[in-house]
Amino acid sequence: MRMPAVRSAGKAVFIDVLGGIVKAPIFWYTRGAYDAAKYCGRLIVRRWLALGVGVWIMNIFVPMYGQHDLAGKLISFGMRVIQIIFRGAAMIVWVFIVLALFVAYLAAPIFIFIELLRQFGGAFTQ
Question: Are 60 and 88 in contact (CB under 8 A)?
Fold first, then answer.
């Protein structure tokens, strides 16, 4: 008499697992991609704030150490330009790293699916 209950539970588990397999790619490329893009945006903003590029740009013409003579202004301007160039370059590199990680996130399920097909295909042909 317990057999129908076991079949019903097994059927429910099978449908739940199958539903999870079907829903995973849909989640990955909709809500998951949206959340990953937001996270990547936060990474970029945090790096921008950590490097302080905006502060360096805003204060490019403000003399350092309160020196208002010509030499102080030129040295301050030159140092800030160099800082902006190197910090901007670091920021560009960081943006490319984050974009590469996001593209890897998007490509991961496709790569895994192709590799699974290769593995299972090799197992069935031997």
Answer: no
